[in-house]
Each structure stands twice: as C-alpha cells, then as structure tokens.
Amino acid sequence: MTEVLTVRNVHWYSDGIFGIAFERDGIEFVPGDCLALFGADEQTSRPYSVASGAGEDTLRFVIRRMPGGDISGYLAEREAGDRVKISPPFGWFRPGPRDDGSPFVFLATGTGISPFLAHFNSRPVAPPLQCLYGVRTLDDAVDSDKIESQCDLRMAVSRGDAGHHHRGRITDLLEGMPCATENHYYLCGLDAMIDDVSQWLELKGVPITHIHRECFFNASYSTPQT
After folding, report:
1. Neighbour tally for 53: CB within 10 Å
2. Residue 51 lies in domain
3. Beta bridge partners of 35
4. I need a labelling partner for 157 at 20 to 30 A (CA). Which of 81, 132, 142, 201 fits?
5. What is the pLDDT of residues 137-182, one digit of tens each?
6. DSSP character for 155?
7. Residue 50, burial from CB neighbour count under 10 angstroms (0-12, 13-18, 19+)
8. Are residues 143 and 203 in the same domain?
9. Cα–Cα dist 142/205, whole Å
C-alpha cells in the first residue's frame, strides 16, 4: 500500500548527488530498508535505501541525479512542501551487528553508502571494524566526518584531488582491510566493486554466507539506477 509524504528539504552535496528528506509520518524502518519513490506520473518508481537514522523524524535518501533519469530528475526538482508518492519499506540487506556478535566491515561506492549511513545515524552500540568508501570526487562524499567519528574510515577517490585520502579505487585498499573468516562483510554500490571484493574475500577463505551484497547499479550501463 503506497503513501504520499511531504518533502521537508532537498540538499545538494555535489553537482550530481543530493539528499531529499521527507516528513516521516510514522513510517517504521530498519537500517538497510528501501522504499520505492515515484515520479511525476505516480506509476514509475525506483527503489532507494533510507539514509536517516531509525530515531529521526525524517526519511532521508541520498540520490545521484542521472542525466535523463525520470525519477532522480523529478526528485531533484522537488521543494519543501511538495508531495511524493512512496511505497512501504522493504528489503533484506541488514548491515550491522550479528546475533552472535561477529565483527563486521562496510564497503560502499557512491550512493551505496546510504544503508550504512542509516546504521551510523541510528547510533548503534557496535561500530564496524572499518568502513571503506569509494567516491568519484571528494565533493561526492556524504557525511564522511560522521562516519569517521564512529569507526575507522578509509576513502578512495577515483577522480580529481583526493586530499589525504587514497587516489584510486576502493579495491586498492583491500590489503589493509581487516580480513578474517569470522568477520561479516557488507558490500553496497557498484556491481563491479561487489564482484571484485567478493572474489577477493572468497580467495582469502571468507565463507560466502559472510558476504552480504546489495547492488545499486550496474557498471555495464552508462546510467546507474540511483
């Protein structure tokens, strides 16, 4: 059953990435959940992971505006007070502590940081051992200060000035990542990153059941889904 929520604000992080926040209106979710956000026709939709914390009074999403994208373009042009049709929360990706207390690691590219932001913004008891975060440019990094205040953040910047961060791909950082068969690994973002990291972990002996994947977009296409 769909609902209609009111936009509270739209915030641009860079030329291509923005956050859109809605009045929460009592909707319950857990970190890792997605909602389908609908476009102007209220028929076409795309799934986006919640980036806000479970205790916040808004539902916030981090979205890359795609050239010609019907949904991302529509959402990017919303203003406070506008109404947008959404679906109930859904999903199976659950980044965070396991019931058995196993250590865990986050790896994200681009807007794939969203479910991990939901985890950090929910003020969890246990942080990840490390968070690896790959972005195109430094301006594309979302809430990196907040992440760094809660865990060991390692960023990779693939284009332009990287500052004190690594210049290159997130996979360049794998050798410095905590790697043990008892750890759980949560991968979100570009499918090429997810595949490369999964193969690397399996070669290190990490069980496939400890590798949790959420693909946001496909490298074989010029227009990611988010």
Report:
1. 18
2. 3-86
3. 48
4. 201
5. 999 999 999 999 999 999 999 998 999 999 999 999 999 999 999 9
6. E
7. buried
8. yes
9. 32
